Amino acid sequence: xxxxxxxxxxxxxxxxxxxxxxxxxxxxxxxxxxxxxxxxxxxxxxxxxxxxxxxxxxxxxxxxxxxxxxxxxxxxxxxxxxxxxxxxxxxxxxxxxxxxxxxxxxxxxxxxxxxxxxxxxxxxxxxxxxxxxxxxxxxxxxxxxxxxxxxxxxxxxxxxxxxxxxxxxxxxxxxxxxxxxxxxxxxxxxxxxxxxxxxxxxxxxxxxxxxxxxxxxxxxxxxxxxxxxxxxxxxxxxxxxxxxxxxxxxxxxxxxxxxxxxxxxxxxxxxxxxxxxxxxxxxxxxxxxxxxxxxxxxxxxxxxxxxxxxxxxxxxxxxxxxxxxxxxxxxxxxxxxxxxxxxxxxxxxxxxxxxxxxxxxxxxxxxxxxxxxxxxxxxxxxxxxxxxxxxxxxxxxxxxxxxxxxxxxxxxxxxxxxxxxxxxxxxxxxxxxxxxxxxxxxxxxxxxxxxxxxxxxxxxxxxxxxxxxxxxxxxxxxxxxxxxxxxxxxxxxxxxxxxxxxxxxxxxxxxxxxxxxxxxxxxxxxxxxxxxxxxxxxxxxxxxxxxxxxxxxxxxxxxxxxxxxxxxxxxxxxxxxxxxxxxxxxxxxxxxxxxxxxxxxxxxxxxxxxxxxxxxxxxxxxxxxxxxxxxxxxxxxxxxxxxxxxxxxxxxxxxxxxxxxxxxxxxxxxxxxxxxxxxxxxxxxxxxxxxxxxxxxxxxxxxxxxxxxxxxxxxxxxxxxxxxxxxxxxxxxxxxxxxxxxxxxxxxxxxxxxxxxxxxxxx
Length: 763
Fold this sequence. Notes:
By secondary structure, this protein is mainly beta. Strand 25 (312-321) and strand 26 form a beta hairpin.
């Protein structure tokens, strides 16, 4: 199919909310396509035509919306191509209207931006002219004079322009020829012209073939048989009293309502003066909507009217006397709009959860419309005044619901916003739509004690005087612990004091017994158990397990140039010695040789390609990844990745000079690739290739979070068998070992396994 692209000059007008909301171009982007073009066909490359960057349509969740709410177009966000979702039938979409233009909008988010577009649907010659009847009966009086014109029923061709109906022809004969008459409404009518005097006694009937031709290449045609009966003389045809008739009808008029009564008179007498009425050359729509009583001339409603669909009708009527003569009349029926359509609200974008304390935030983008016209179609959009939200008109009938001030979850955690759209008709109609917005919590409140001081240990004695005087003491722990270096107790009031700073990572909880003794004789005593829980503080920065950064040779990952977007390059593995949210880790890409080529997943540290690789991309890429915990304040660490783009993994890989120098240095043959093993387990055997530095000897115990915090999703213990050659980067992952986790007093160990020579158990 042939598709034209029309590139208009663009002017862009912008205005700023908290986010930037861009207005559409004053002049829309215009394209054209032939009707019946196959679905999936290419229309235009929107990324280029809208002046956007590659990948911007996808990143900003671009969408295409048609004015008729039917998704006839498809936007490929990956390529930026605008495609046909389905075949377009010009006649189904526009009928006889020309030109046939499909209006659509392209809008993007973050920031919100709109572009208006028009798709011109070009007609093809896919319809033949069709007459309403296969045979026409025409009665002509024998005293009709040469040059008399007899209107015939026209053919209908759904195509337009040059593909529409162009002319009529009739088979050769001695008495008649046909003329094509152009009407003011753009239609072409056939007129039969008499060429010769008629003589009923000589020939009482003619059968002629009327042909309608369109202007296609090759042209299409349709035929109808014209049967002409020569009648005895009836020298007066009926004439309508008024023409045209004009009448207004409410669109909500009930069925069988009387529209008006037409009247025609014939001055002839007898049967030649008797008039019957009918609709002349009526379309199928008019036949379905109106009926006429052939005796009385009453025109009644047979189908519900809809002002939004059809605003007026031109009805041709015919009055025929008993002799076959007829007169023509016109009835113009104007449909009067009533407020029968409530406003409509369509949500285009919605955010159901907003963090508290956030600045002005876009909650929803929606469009309103009313299918009525005039005041009935004018609308007012509003929300309740007592909410911290406001409505802002954006583009045409698009509105944006935004926060008016920062939200406080502790004051109100949920809002139900009722958007009310009311028209200005009589009676007024309205539509309401409820949006529920949840306020997500932000750690903006420090813990608060319910009282300023506490008595941790207290005892009472019901005796009096010295027998009621209580002395507190710490009882010796069992087994013996250095309790005296941790806490002390006031013997008079039982207040407990910490004697040293407590380290959550070293000691999370401890307990001891406190004794209370009175001063009676003999002295009586009792004891109580005190358990102290140490709260964690964010005092440990994230530690990167893979790739290790303190080796002499950098870690190099190999990526084939044929890799698809989303290809897993490697995975950064890190842990945090803290607990809870202090150990929740997130990843982000700080620096890159070529921004946009790679991306890092925030929650798992996976480094993936963001687009297709090209020959223009540098073969050596350097990435800096930041690992940050969720403490307050947050602590972070960074790691540098070296990526080499190769044509395939079969391509020879020559290590960098610094890597060769490191390889030449003497090394322990039992070098342990624990970091490589852990990274391979975490990424599930991801397709990442390269040479990376290794960790040797005893692995620091604080680097692995066996309690399930940090990057690892659960407690792991693995048995990993490694080769003796530390330059090959090979290892063998045998199996996870779950029983008997090697965790004692919060310390982790690496033990040698008997299953292979260079085998270690990692817990």
